[in-house]
């Protein structure tokens, strides 16, 4: 067998024992992993620095390098995420929808793990730990196929993960990393439906499209999309500026970063000069419609006229588009037109509750917000500990995918010699 098929077979076998393992054992493995990450922080950073240096030599984009880089602070955040996952209740074995039928049958549903989760991702080694922690906690196995950008980091992290499993009498093969970074393996992975129960791509639109077209098993093919913020006529302008800046600047290279600001024309004269001043400090490229451009001017090098392609574009960079609108209805219409029924994250800044409720009810995105940064569309930020992905589709999960999204259920029927008449 080749490496991929062998590890897929081993993962399927490991699932048999992990899925029925003791919850405390799984938590203990996660505790060991958190401690191991802390104890080996310097070695993780050394491996990551080698990946980063090679990425620079290969002229990888700044976005790729930014997603690749680990720091002591980011490792501490990963460890905190594991701790949060440990503190969540066991998602497996939950009984619900109980019903005692008139014929004496007892019927209920019981949560179970999904099985073997295949994840194809690029650049971000933190995904290796996030997915691992959620899968172990929920009794699922994972086959990880990271990109060559982070291969040294991922190999080392996987070694720590497998040691933590072994030390707690759990199958090491529950978590497997495909170390061969040849992209030709991706279509092969998408064909292994007899071993992989769900496939999740995390990366470029091209990767998501490939998985959507080629995967023979169920796949989560959302996750890319446009994030909007609408500044309402009743917005608190200071809030609007702070929220918009955070949504764009805190990490411009991720899917929940702000792409388009929609500004009500009645507050444009007040809001636009302030937001432009703040964004310009951080070298954000600003693309404006005609009305916005008349208000702020185009004297600065970072300000230009927006083209039609700048609406509905996921920038994943220090770029934002700005459009003025007459009212909330026009803002909603713009969002609906450019999200193509696959909305990611959209937020309204307003002090008017009726307008807020209109926006929440009519914008059909995976996460809709009021007076909050789009960067909060994140499993860790929304109390889930971490996430395996953010889904913009409606089946089988939507928004940040945490423990609950990694479970299914089975019907349980208890009888006493019952036969059907």
Plain-language structure description:
It is a single chain. This protein has helices spanning 3-18, 23-39, 41-57, 62-68, 72-86, 126-137, 151-166, 185-189, 205-214, 237-249, 268-281, 290-296, 328-339, 353-362, and strands at 95-100, 106-113, 116-121, 141-145, 175-177, 198-202, 227-231, 260-264, 285-288, 303-305, 319-325, 343-349, 365-370, 389-391, 399-401, 407-414. The chain has 421 residues and is an alpha/beta fold. It folds into two domains: 3-221 and 393-414, Aldehyde Dehydrogenase, Chain A, domain 1, CATH 3.40.605.10; 227-376, Aldehyde Dehydrogenase, Chain A, domain 2. The mean pLDDT is 93.
Spatial ordering of strands, largest sheet: 10-9-11-8-7-12-13
Annotated CATH homologous superfamily of the largest domain: Aldehyde Dehydrogenase, Chain A, domain 1
Shape call: globular
Tell me what the CATH architecture of the largest domain is.
3-Layer(aba) Sandwich
- First and last CA, distance: 51 Å
Strand content: 15-25%
Mean pLDDT across the residues is 93
| Number of strand elements | 16
Structural class by SSE content: alpha/beta
CATH class of the largest domain: Alpha Beta
**Per CATH, what is the topology of the largest domain?**
Aldehyde Dehydrogenase, Chain A, domain 1
Structurally, the number of domains stands at 2
Please state the CA-atom Rg, rounded to the nearest Å: 23 Å
Note the total helix count. Answer: 14
Largest sheet: 7 strands, parallel
Low-pLDDT windows of residues: none
Helicity level, as a percent range? 40-55%
The sequence of SSEs as H and E is HHHHHEEEHEHEHEHEHEHEHEEHEHEEEE
